[in-house]
Amino acid sequence: MSEKTREPNALAAIHQWLAEREHQAAQLLAQMTRCRSVQGQETEIQQLLAAQLERLGMEVDLWEPDGEELSSHPLFASPRTDFAGSPNLAAKLPGSGGGRSFLLNGHIDVVPVGDPEQWTQDPWGGNLVEGRLYGRGASDMKGGVAASLLALQALQGCGIRLAGDVIFESVMEEESGGAGTLAASLRGYRADAGLIPEPTGLAVFPKQQGSLWFRLTVHGRGAHGGSRYEGVSAIEKAMGVVAAVLELEKERNSRITDPLYAATPIPVPINLGVIGGGEWPSSVPDRVALEGRMGVAPDETIQNAQAQMSRAISKLGQKDGWLAEHPVELEWFGARWLPCSLDPESELVRMLVEVVEEVRGESPAMVAAPWGTDAGLLGAAAGVPTVVFGPGVVATAHQPDEYVLLEDVMTAAEVIALMLLRWCGRG
Amino acid sequence: MSEKTREPNALAAIHQWLAEREHQAAQLLAQMTRCRSVQGQETEIQQLLAAQLERLGMEVDLWEPDGEELSSHPLFASPRTDFAGSPNLAAKLPGSGGGRSFLLNGHIDVVPVGDPEQWTQDPWGGNLVEGRLYGRGASDMKGGVAASLLALQALQGCGIRLAGDVIFESVMEEESGGAGTLAASLRGYRADAGLIPEPTGLAVFPKQQGSLWFRLTVHGRGAHGGSRYEGVSAIEKAMGVVAAVLELEKERNSRITDPLYAATPIPVPINLGVIGGGEWPSSVPDRVALEGRMGVAPDETIQNAQAQMSRAISKLGQKDGWLAEHPVELEWFGARWLPCSLDPESELVRMLVEVVEEVRGESPAMVAAPWGTDAGLLGAAAGVPTVVFGPGVVATAHQPDEYVLLEDVMTAAEVIALMLLRWCGRG
């Protein structure tokens, strides 16, 4: 007898319960989106979620992690060590006993808005237009967090109790390397398996690339701009550095053969995200810094990726005498996400695929994520094998006019509720 | 009877007076260099100079220009309109009557230090090492301002009174377009001729290029760095913009034939001084801004240079569909220096050349400056034909380890003193 047939009434009840509450779900998500939870400003949304979890009768734990203590851990990676204004939230729904435990993890920190001119919707408005709920973080990943919360509400609303415990983690700092998930793991929250509803567009991601931040500092020699031939422009030298990084990205991706990456144009991208240098229009710039994010393949080590970048940057000096004498500096700083690789044939992944088939009536796409999540860290720090599946339009994450389809949030909630029932068992 | 023979005793006396005071001159210049007179912080050095000028019995005028009033003038160009903390200084030494007047103008604002790591000397130390006085602004142009002051002191010290008036202007804001010189001109300070002791390395500059600041804003489209193929990197697009600017510079300079530019590798350079864009290492940058300074040939108009830049930037869209739809924006902002072109055969230039020959025993180099000065503005706003000649190592201006040769400061002081005597006549 397959899993599918065991709880036909439960699925129908959950579906019905959620379908009748789409309006309230949209209101909750809009309210979450209106919280401007860029890093350091996560208190408001965590308090909002804590109130929702308390209403479910869960044991709620809201705390600001001690950055000093956290930063001494070998898995810590963050540009900051002070987490004032960035509380973490965890809550437990105790099972009736005898079932396996499950952990739902999601982050509520969002990246900055970027150039507001490029938004046609209010980035903090939570406006619902033709089924799309707009706002910074709508896809990445307040939609997913809302889906997890809705799943728990639906189970309770349908009078379904679970045998195993459910842990709900709403963490900060995912966008800078997972200090929130690390803090929750070190506080003792763990389970037999986990799910992170990052915006996969309802695909199943058993593997995610890791990634890490780097800084390249390019040196020039200052001079008066009017006699700029007396100097060496760090901006011009930076052009060569950008070209070398693009070349390295091309080389690395030409070696990726994992079929889960077949549909991904650049499986392990190297993104140059920030550039800055020079102080004065009339001076030759003596320093330009580039900051970026290097993808690490799911089965690659962080160390291997770092060594390839080092080599590519060292090679610049072979063709450029100035760079030979004034080498570009490479630093690994701030954020880092560990790669994650689950066996697509493991019980956790197979069960999720079946649940999605049952809810949606079709098989989900199975891909390797082109971006990092906290799943690798949950595995390394808390021993929780974690799969990634959630609502959200990945193409709009970190972009202007970010949005999530409300319909997908409801579908994900249904999948998560059924997944909890299957994994933890009925109590 | 040539000018040379008219005042043999005066020259010898001035030379002797200065030679005996090299130590005090170094102390004065060191004291000036220790004033951290970046823009907005010029009060301390102006007060120091005001005290020196008062000691010479001059009528001293120290005032903070009214930015509101100033900014309505058509020749105004500055990134700011509030000049609090940036007083201007002018002083008059009345002649005995019957002589022509002369104006000495110099700026005491300095550009920022840049990367302090690249300095081996304290940028604010004013240290004298093997005849070199080090510090930000030592060459550009506190050495020249000191030379002008020393010239007046030497004339007084030798008991030489002049027939014509001398105006001494110590102005702010030259590094951003000359609001200080404009303010002094509008306050009524003018003369029959002028000299600006910018760092020419004791060469005579009858022509200087003009220049103006521009900003290029390059648009991309944000995306999550992990799926960066969904976005368009403004950093990558900026590389093409940098290349187009370099190409335009090449074209423009290939057309310069003025023999005064024969020794200048890039007569009218286009300097890209500042780059900045992107907010997050893991996001595709949606905007990069480049700020720079475009040289304008002495006999070219500002309008012509602007039109050429506009054309070069518009052309980018012809080869790049993204840039065709999202054109690079060009703005002319902040500073602007008018070009200046004196006839090398004019009395002012000939007289200066002869005085330099007399003091140094050899003819000065005569070149067209590769950078702008306030001379064009002095001509346009106050009607003062102005030549540029001064101590200083132009290759170190705006650079780390900027210095001036103390010996050149003393030589310039001697040249200026004798020039005043020749131009204004003995009183």
- Tally of separate helices of chain A: 13
- % residues in beta strands of chain A: 15-25%
Share of residues in helices of chain A: 25-40%
Total number of domains of chain A: 2
Low-confidence stretches of chain A: 1-5
Largest sheet of chain A: 6 strands, mixed
Strand line-up in the sheet with most strands of chain A: 1-2-6-3-7-15
Q: What is the correct CATH architecture of the largest domain in chain A?
A: 3-Layer(aba) Sandwich
CATH topology of the largest domain in chain A: Aminopeptidase
What is the top-level CATH class of the largest domain in chain A? Answer: Alpha Beta
CATH homolog superfamily of the largest domain in chain A: Zn peptidases
> What is the molecular shape of chain A?
elongated
Tell how many strands the DSSP assignment of chain A holds.
16
Largest interface: A-B, 70 and 69 residues
Provide the residue-averaged pLDDT of chain A: 94
How are helices and strands ordered from N to C of chain A?
A: HHHHEHEEEEHEHEEEHEEHHEEHEHEEH
Instruction: Name the quaternary structure.
Output: homodimer
Radius of gyration of chain A: 23 Å
What's the arrangement of secondary structure elements?
The structure is a homodimer of 427-residue chains.
Chain A lengths: L2 H4 L1 H12 L2 H13 L8 H13 L3 E5 L3 H4 L17 E6 L8 E6 L20 E2 L2 E3 L3 H20 L8 E6 L7 H8 L6 E4 L7 E5 L1 E10 L14 H21 L15 E8 L9 E10 L5 H18 L1 H5 L3 E9 L2 E2 L5 H14 L5 E4 L5 H8 L3 E3 L14 E3 H19 L3
Parallel strand pairs in A: 3-6, 3-7, 7-15, 8-14
Antiparallel strand pairs in A: 1-2, 2-6, 4-5, 5-16, 8-13, 9-11, 9-12, 10-11
Helix pairs in contact in A: 2-13, 3-6, 6-13, 7-12, 8-9, 11-13
